[in-house]
Structure formats: C-alpha cells, structure tokens
Amino acid sequence: MEVDLRATLDRHGRLDVPAATLADDADLYAAGLDSLAIVNIMLAIEETFQVEFPDSLLSRQSFSSIASLERIIRQLQSESV
Amino acid sequence: MTASALELAGQAWSIEDAAARVAAVAKRHADQVDRDGAFPAAAIAALKTEGLLGALVPVAFGGLGETLSAVAEACCTLAQACASTAMIYAMHQIQVACLVRHGTGSTWHCNFLRRIAAQRLLLASVTSEEGVGGNMRSSACAVQLGTGSHGAGQRGAGGYTLEKRGSAVSYGEHADALLITARSGAYAKPSDQVLVVSPREDCELERTGTWNALGMRGTCSSALRVVAAGKAEQILPAPFGQIASDTMVPVSHLLWASVWIGIAADAVDRARLFLRAAVRRSEGALPPGALRLSMAVELLEMLQARVTVGLRRFEAARACAAEPIPVGEAADMNTLKAGVSEACLQVVHQALLICGFAGYQNEGPYSLSRHLRDLNSAPLMINNDRIRETTARLLLASKPRLGLL
C-alpha cells in the first residue's frame, strides 16, 4: 500500500518534492499540499483502494501525513469488508 | 478627527464613524481620481490619520484589534464613495491579516506589526509576475539567501536578495512596505514559495508599465520591477501555500466582496434618488422601470446576507482551536467570490435601467459610469472561469454547507 499511496501522491498531490523523499510522518502541507490536490488525492485513493471517503474524514488532520492517510485507508477497507 | 481628539470632545471613537469620515473625503476626490487615474492620496492620508490602517493589528501590538467583519463593513462604506480607495484599503488589510495570522511567531514580524500601527504603514503586495500570469501560487523569481551587499538596505550573512518583475502591483509606488512572493530558493519548484516583507527603504522600484484601465483607475496597478534586500528573518516562517489557503485567499474574497457590495449599494442609492425626483415631478406617478428598484434591493440584500454568512463562518473557523476543513472552506469562499462579483454587476445594471440616460452619462448625480467600470474588474480579479473550474472539483469532494444557522 505504501508504494501505491506514494505513487498517488506523486501523480495527484502536486507536492514540492517526490513522495519517496518524505517520511511517513512528514507534514504534507509543508510539502505544498493544497485544497485542490486534496480532492484529487481523495478521488485517486477511492479509485485505487476501492473505498469511499466519508465527509467526516475530509479534515485537515486526515491529509496531514502519509501515515495518517494509510491509517484511514486501512480503516475504510476494514469497514467495507 | 483622531481618536484622542474625539475623547477630548467626550465622544466615543468607532470604526464605523471613522470609515464614514474617510468616505466623505474619498467622495470629494473620487471623480478626479477616476478621471486622472490618480492615487487617492487625500483619502489614504485620512485613513492614516484615523488610524484605520492598523484596524486588524491586535491591541497588544498597538493596533485597534478590530474584527474582520468590522473591516469588511469599513470597506463597504468606503466603496460607496470611491471604489479605488476601498480596494486599496481592502488589499492593505489582506496583507495585515496574513502577518497577524502567520507572523506572530517571529520577533521581526511582531516588531513590524507594531510599526504598522505606530507609523501607520500602507502595505502593498507583489504576487503577480511577468511570464507567470495571474496564478498567485506560482513564482519564477527566487530569494537568494546569504548573499552579499549591493544597493540599498542592510544585509550580509543571514541576508536575502530578491528581484521580481511584478506584472500588476497595485499602488506599489505609494506603499510603505511590500509583501513579495518568490520561490524559497534557487532550486525550488515554482509552487514552493515564501512571502517576504520588504519595507520601502529596503527596495528599489522601477515602473515598467502603465495602468490606464477601464476602472479601478486609482489603484495604480502598473507593472513594477522590484529589487529588494534585507535580513532572512523578514521571510515569513510559514510556507506561502499555507498563508494563501489559510488567510490570503479567503480574506481577499471576503473583503473584495464587501467592496463590490458597496459599489452596487451606491448605484442603487443613485437610482433611488433618481426615482424620487421623477415621482416628485410627476405628482406621485411611478415612472416605467420603478419596480426595478425593488428588484435591485432584493438582490443586494441577498448578496449582503451571503457575505455576512461567509464572514461569520470564516471568523468562527479561525476562532476555534480545531483546524478548519480545507476543502469545504475553499469551495465556500470561491462560490462567494464568483457569485457576488457577477451579481453586483446585475444590481448596477438594474440601477442603470432605472436611471436611463442620466445613468449612462459619465458625470452627474445619477451617473453609473464609474460603478459599472469599477465593478467590471470583479469577475477578473482571479478570473471567475478559473475559480469555477477549481470550485467544481472541490465540490466533488465536499457537499456545500447549506442550512440556515
């Protein structure tokens, strides 16, 4: 999943640096993440991981780091099983 | 009258009264400012005298500590007299809001906020750039850190230099300080930007274009080449991307919208006075088109409510400790900007149909020429087509916040 998520961030996140250079807990906002990129990442995550993002998880906190996004994807996948 | 003079006279100072006094000055010069494309020097001097440039600076830093809503109201009041003055005031306050929100963790910027209040500094911004276009979130120029000294200002180790060709720098030559965006270093990507505060004495300016525009003529938004140098600590610690999405963009849309509503409100008032005179002459009979006065006021009231809701949501989000939901707020501010900018033009158009050729004149008490020309800048200030494309995408992820509370 880590590889897929970093590839998704590279394709849709418009970050200032390649996602491979970011630690799991690195601040994605400091790397240039903005609102529009959040939407694109959210849609890409829904498609790649076959999950649906509820409005309640669409917070600044959810998209703050790779680790946070991984946690959310795992949680959504386990709920949909 | 200054705050202390009012206190001596036993009257309380209020931002509403102060804005009304400045508006009276702005109104006297509005036609000349528009005709000559002149900087509204008298009105800006009055804003300084009233201490209104420091309205958003916290009391702890010597400012008035006013709310954004109060400043929005002042923008609306000023716009009823002179749109250029109101837009300059709005643009200044947008810069102050960025410093208050993102600069108070830095000693240099805290001291600078004190200077804004004490010395009544006027701030301008250099976000546009030749070759980049209107996209504020992209820079070609870069700050050079640790560079030596050439030209004005103090630097050396721990210093920065910066050269930028701004494509539209509103009142840059009349400002006391410039806030300039640039890439964070020589090898940074165009979107990896910082915001630098450059007091006027630290920069050299060269006008490289003219501003002979349809409206907003007093904003003097010509192309300007800026060479700035100073200490590295003048660079705001937060990345510009965060400053833009948290503060600069939402505050811009809220204050611009307040200006546009002020312009539309004055147009409606001219139409109302036109009708009053007509009804007096015709011994009570309503002339054709009179019902448009009601239609114009209906629309204007909806626009006022929209901006009030936007201000309330923004202030509530910034007041609570939890971070705002970035997608929902961005969509909310974008629909506010695109919607209000175009609907205000519809309001003025209704007023024009009421006033007829008296409104079509370039001068006279019922002229709507300036209102129409000034307001036509509104859909262009960050082009509505671009905004709506972004908004549509944001709305895919975030349900719009409706509901009446």
What level of helicity do the residues of chain B show? 40-55%
Compute the gyration radius of chain B: what is it? 22 Å
Total helical elements of chain A: 3
**What is the helix tally of chain B?**
12
Mean pLDDT of chain B: 93
Radius of gyration of chain A: 11 Å
Number of strands of chain B: 7
Task: Report the CATH topology name of chain A.
Answer: Non-ribosomal Peptide Synthetase Peptidyl Carrier Protein, Chain A
**How far is the first residue's CA from the last residue's CA of chain B?**
39 Å
The main sheet of chain B orders its strands as 2-3-7-6
> How many discrete domains of chain A?
1
Query: What is the CATH level 1 assignment of chain A?
Result: Mainly Alpha
Percentage of helical residues of chain A?
40-55%
CATH architectural category of chain A: Orthogonal Bundle
Shape of chain B: globular
Low-confidence stretches of chain A: none
Q: N-to-C terminal Cα separation of chain A, in Å?
A: 17 Å
Shape of chain A: globular
What does this structure look like?
The complex is a heterodimer of chains A (81) and B (405). Chain A has 81 residues and is mostly helical. Chain A has one domain: Orthogonal Bundle (Non-ribosomal Peptide Synthetase Peptidyl Carrier Protein, Chain A). Chain A is 51% helix and 0% strand. Chain A is built from 3 helices and no strands. In chain A, α1 packs across α2. The longest helix of chain A has 15 residues. By secondary structure, chain B is α+β, with helices and mostly antiparallel strands. In chain B, the strands form 2 sheets. In chain B, strands 2-3-7-6 form a 4-stranded antiparallel β-sheet, with no helix packed on it. In chain B, strands 1-4-5 form a 3-stranded mixed β-sheet, with helices on one face. The two termini of chain B are 39 Å apart. The relative contact order of chain B is 0.11. Classes of the chains: A mainly alpha (81), B alpha+beta (405). Chains A and B meet through α2 of A and α7, α9 and α12 of B.
